[in-house]
Write a structure and sequence with these properties.
By secondary structure, the protein is an alpha+beta fold. The protein contains 4 helices and 7 strands; from the N terminus they run H-H-E-H-E-E-E-E-E-E-H. It has one domain. The strands form 2 sheets. A 5-stranded antiparallel sheet has the order 1-4-5-6-7. Strands 2-3 form a two-stranded antiparallel sheet.
Length: 166
């Protein structure tokens, strides 16, 4: 009887340890997937008017952070949209938080092609590393939003290239 209790205790501890290890190994890919999914949902929900309102007012080729009033405009639109699945991401006031609970960066540029860029610094929280999650939304001349070729690219986060990598 005592032997059975010890075997059950060892089995329970082993199962708990495996569960904790699996959770630790999966948490970052899950948060990465949630953040990328959120950026895709936001892209789908941006209307032409909202995209235009989020772009910088001056003609500038450099990426510029959106203004506080523009961030508020986007946050209001996201708050009113009940279809967005936030998963491990959230909205804190007017700031979009990624799957790790860190603020996402929203930037815009007006030329050569009007575009918005959402950036999460990924699991390491450092800009310009391979785990950055970037979604660029380019506005065509017809006003339609065209997604970037991919979602993840540290080089795109630094503005070094327009080619995102899957």
């Amino acid at each position: 009887m005592k032997k059975t209790g010890i075997v059950l205790a060892v089995a329970a501890v082993s199962i708990l340890a495996l569960w904790l290890i699996a959770g630790a190994l999966l948490i970052h890919p899950i948060r990465e997937a949630h953040t990328g999914f959120l950026f895709g949902q936001i892209q789908m929900e941006l209307t032409n008017d909202l995209r235009t309102a989020l772009l910088p007012p001056d003609q500038n080729e450099q990426w510029q952070p959106v203004s506080p009033s523009q961030a508020h405009l986007l946050a209001d639109a996201l708050r009113s949209n009940r279809l967005i699945d936030w998963n491990s991401c959230s909205l804190d006031g007017d700031i979009i938080l990624d799957g790790w609970g860190r603020a996402c960066i929203l930037e815009g540029r007006s030329t050569p092609a009007a575009a918005l860029r959402f950036t999460s610094f990924g699991k390491d929280g450092i800009r310009g590393t391979d785990d950055d999650i970037v979604r660029e939304i380019t506005q065509s001349k017809s006003g339609d939003a065209k997604p970037s070729p991919g979602t993840y690219s540290s080089k795109a986060a630094d503005g070094l290239t327009g080619n995102a990598q899957e």
